[in-house]
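Re: the request from the purification team.
They wanted to know what the chain is likely to look like in 3D before they choose a buffer screen. I agreed to run a prediction and write the result into the notebook, where they can find it.
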Amino acid sequence: MPTQIHHRKKRILEMRVSAMTNDLLIRPGTLDDIPRAEELYRLARAGLKASGIDQWQGVYPDGSDFAADVRAGIAIAAEKDGAVIAVAACCIGHDPTYDKIYDGQWLTHNRTYGIIHRIAVDPMVRANGTASQIIAHLKTLCLQEGIGSMRCDTHRDNRIMQHTLEKNGYQKCGIILVEDGTQRLAYEKCL
């Protein structure tokens, strides 16, 4: 079950982003996206399991988590050629699981920051920079709001997400405990 994140009620702006090989539309997620979000979470769960990573090996996340993100106004969907290829929760706010950090410290003492959770990218397009473009989208939202940093966490064995965060300027800061008491590597990026 996800931690309750205190976030600003703010409409996620649609943004078209381009990269050398990509043209994505990043838009607010809708309830119509739930079946695709469930499929992307299932594919992510299978990929993590195949890699021997025990992250997301229960029922979390699922369609009800995506629906809650939609209702909270923090769900995003990334489309390429009209098809949803990634989903995530992006917001500006405060995550209580980030209040205590072990074996390190945050780069800032900010109580409000950009947050990305539950990112799932279709494995067929995973290497095309979609996750990086979602991170860039959140950075744009943060800069528009005068927010000075972004935070994220990932499983210790999830090397793909760790690499994605580090190549996008995040720094490993320590360890946080999520709601069920398991450890996650904590990252922050100053803007």
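For the purification team: The radius of gyration is 15 Å.
Please add any questions underneath this entry.
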